[in-house]
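Render Transposase, Ptta/En/Spm, plant in 3D.
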Amino acid sequence: MAPDEHDRPAKRTRQRTRELSTTNESCHEGSADDELFTINGSAEPENENQIQIGNEGQTSRMIDRWNRGRTMGKDLDRISHGLCAKIPVNVSEGMKRPEAHMQAAKLASETGIILRQHIPILPHWKDYKKDDSHFDNYMGKIAGRFAIDSNSKAVKNACTDLFKGGLRQLRYRLKKAYFDGKPANEVRTTSPLDSMTDEQWWALVEMWSNPKHKEKCAKNKSNREKVVMQQRTGSRCFVAHCHAVKQDKYKDVPATPIDLFKECYCSSKTGFTEPVKKAIADMEAMMTEHPEGQDPKSPNEIFSEVLPRSKFLQTAGIVAAAPKRNGKAAVSSRVQELESELEAEKRGAAALRDQLDAQQLEMGDLKKHVQDSDAQIEALKKQAAETDIILRKLLMLNKV
């Protein structure tokens, strides 16, 4: 008699092995960095009743995350294993991201993993400049996961931009999860992350408690609400999105900045917003204008004229961004400019002083000439009076 199907041992397949491994991993207690991505910074629920509380969509996403276990970095390992080599990361000069969307996405994802697991969150960017070990640790781990040229300036600039942006986001999530809306006596006194010490956490809490910092945060929040043109490319950066659009839609005809602007600010659900529509209409109207006796404006010039404060051309890699100078170089150059201006003013003052001295000498000569003229006039007057007396005497003698 054949055994019952329920009594048979399950066949050990690759899919079954993965399911068992993810199930086992989901049973383990999550680390502190996973708390940053749970709802309202809460930990895993202790019973099923807690799962029923809150939004159903949010709850389902939380359950899916717990069930699937840790997946960070596995996709990159799978791709590298399939290629039998590390994924190359190529960044062009003046770009902030790789143009290939796969390279940009994996580099950003791996940066987030490294920052969450290995890099402490310090209050200011200058703290990372004082201690280069954190950035060197980050670059070393990136070089271990990708085939990159660590000595390339473009690669370093792109990694630095990702490093700064990721730290800023993590600092914001820490503040939202463990500080905002909590009384001072309920703010935790120990670090919530394994990558941070208690002293580093205290430094963050002290900065967040500063009234000037709170005022600055409120001002930044009000400024963000004034942004009228929101990015519509999802998690994909402008550089990678524009590169993909050029390959898909503009293989034969080069894309203009206006075309790429439309692609980056068009929502698949709502389309263009009113400010974007107005900007596009103004740019297209200027493209059709051909004033007589003047050279037609380039698309880049038209875009800069319609949106003078926009950094889209630089962010999308259409125009090379101007190199940033560090604080010391900027101060040194400013000092040199001021010194040159001071020297020019000194030379101008010396020239004015010489001119004034020359005018004073000329005035002295004129005064002397006037005095000589007055003396000559007085002598002529005296001579005329003597002549007049002699003539009168002669007339009197003739009468006699």
